[in-house]
Amino acid sequence: PLNEIGAPLTGCVSSGTMVVPPAYSDLGKAAKDIFNKGYGYGVMKLDIKTKSQNGIEFIYSGFSNTDTGKSGAHLESKCKVNNLGLSFNQKWISDNTLSMDITMEDQLATGLKLGLDTMFVSSTGKKSGKVKSGYKRNHMNLGCDLDLDRAGPTVHTAAVLAFSGWVGGYQMVYETAKSKTTKYSVTFGYQGSDFQAHAHLNDSTEFGASIYHKANKNLDAAVNLAWTAGSNNTRFGIGTKYQLDKDSSLSVRNNTYNTFIYWRVNITLSAMINGKSVSSGGHKVGMAFEVEA
Question: Residues near 36 by Cβ (< 8 Å), separated by ≥ 6?
Answer without folding.
Answer: none
